[in-house]
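Subject: mismatched residue count in predicted assembly?

I count 767 residues in my input, but I want to confirm that the predicted structure covers every chain. Input:
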Amino acid sequence: MSLASATHHDASVNYLNEDKGIWSWMTTIDHKRIGIMYLVSVLIAFLLGGVFAMLIRLALLNPKHTVFGTVIMSAETYNKVFTLHGAIMVFLFIIPSIPAALGNFVLPLMLGAKDVAFPRLNLFSYYLYVTGAIMALAAIVGGGIDTGWTFYTPYSTSTQGAVGMMTMAVFVLGFSSIFTGVNFIATVHKLRAPGMGWFNMPLFVWGMYATAVIQVLATPVLSITLVLLLLERVMKIGIFDAAIGGDPVLFQHFFWFYSHPAVYIMILPGMACISEIIPTFCRKTIFGYRSIAFSSVAIALIGFLVWGHHMFVSGQSQLATVLFSFLTFLVAIPSGIKVFNWLATMWRGNISLETPMVYALNFLLLFAIGGLTGIFLGALSTDVHLTDTYFVVAHFHYVMMGGTVIAFLGAIHYWWPKMTGRMYNETWGRIGAVLVFIGFNTTFMTQFLMGSRGMPRRYYNYLDQFQQLHAFSTYGSWILGLGLVINAVGLIVSLFNGIKAGPNPWGGTTLEWQTQSPPIKHNFHDQPVLDRLPYDYRRPIETELEVK
Amino acid sequence: MSSTAVHTEHDPTLQHHFATREQQFDASKIGMWLFLATEILLFGGLFVGYGLMQSKYPEAWVAAHHHLQRSLGAANTIVLLVSSFTMVLGVWAASQNKRKMLIVCLILTLLCAGIFLGVKYFEYAHKYHDGLLPGMFFDTKAHPEPAHQNIFFSFYFMMTGLHGLHILGGMGAITWVLIGAIKGRFHSNYYTPVDLVGLYWHLVDLIWIYLFPLLYLIQ
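Triage response: the counts match. Full output below for your records.
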């Protein structure tokens, strides 16, 4: 890239301060601002879902559900709280977390583009998200829901409460997710910088691309399913309600046809972040670039064919069950390829343990545990024993929280200097990351034990024999919460007194590090031209502005 | 993507983040095709549900579909096919700078869409009169045997209803393009909206091509 023309630009002007006032944010079509608005929104959702999680753990501290002699919540409230925890975390937090917040910010920068392909659609998708979030809040205020986040029929067609409002909220959120996916696919196809072919795109882009394919192809099925559920509730159309001739198992098929691929909508972006963080903090070219890229696509494709493993005990045919079990095992192959490639990247690398890297190590351990316990659940004989126990709860928390959320936290720290232009406090960042690791394992490792001993999920009551493990899990949730609060405070404080970040504080090789921090409105002063492979540490990295 | 293409200064139809018109056109087209894929999957859920319920209650399906008027369904199929043809002509006219022809074609397409909805209205009114309504509104006293005909009509109204909403949406989009055509916004270098609305309209047509035999021609 040419440095000659860059020197006379005013480095204090950036996307944050070029236009001023709340209105300039509300009507912005700048992908970076939309990414920041998404980031703030999903973090608020994370906080809300997290408060519900802490309440669940508190209520399960002892079998009488008391703290200092006061009952925390009734059984009815408990059902609503775990439903809201799940629904908020899945639909309002994890699904949009990495793609819509960080992806929006980083993806066009990585491609050397000025914006996503459809900037107005991008803003529209954000407002759909906000509308969906408001509808979800209305559902909470207007009676709550107690169906679990899966909305299984026949219970969801007969229970009272705001099921209709909540399903319509998810319907709207689904379209927000679809539009983000459409935008990313078109952007990756058409807006890559000159010189950037498919195989020198950063791996984050590959991960986002695979995610977007699932968002576009799976979400509409959930949309129509939720419409059918609503119509079944209000006018008894007879599709899911067995009493009038419908088939409740069909709902499960429809729901998981979306919601299993949705698991990959959640984990692929996490993997995408890890593929960026590990080479940067190991100062080493990523090992097996193509196999990581293709394994993302493979996970996305196979992910469409495994939904039946949620229904091993729902009365599927034996043949279907065996096929779904086999296909489930297949997903382990591309996932394993990724993990081994990351490990091989670290081997003989020059590893430095900044907060993003600490989180990446957390991810490797926790995702390995989450992935391997998924094999237990994909195996038919063990699954029959473990279905609907805490083992399942622990498994998907290891993947969703231990995988995606941990990667998200690492990625926030990684791109924080780029987004805000400030460095966070490294010591507190590391302390937070370590506490999250300890707290997370304390909370959920115990749940593997409880589940394998038969503790059923979603139950308000439990036998005295589980008291110690339940209490242990609750203590873990406090450590986990403390770690998250420390990270949050560290990041917020850095906005005010963090030292200024240069364009490339980590020595990253991808294009987003070649523009100033924070970037200008149109990202780059001159159209970047790619003349190197991603993660090439053999040559020094040049930045557009040599600001130190 | 060609970086050698001439960058046109002050071209109001070229958004700032695209280097060339071709790039912008291709991106829009990819976006539209993806949107159409989501539409197919949206209807896909209804098609799967319909197929499953038909295999569960074949007698009810055959009996219920006799209440539909094949002649009207067939007429509407022809109307939509004609409208797709006029739309194709319109897109071609736009690409050839034939503004008057574009306007005429769009008006003809709108007219066909209107006829389609008019016929659909008479069909719906007839069903309403006979109590052939979805789910709990179905008149089981008037049509007691075979059971579960109400589920057929649930699907009939959901599928044709969702399709009808798409026709309405399409009419809105065509009207928007028509206004643009009258104002002379399109020319051979820029007719992306006409092209994309055309694609959408063909999909709406195509879905009906599947709905017609599925609902009206059961053996």
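The longest helix of chain B spans residues 21-56. Marking this ticket as 'not a bug'.
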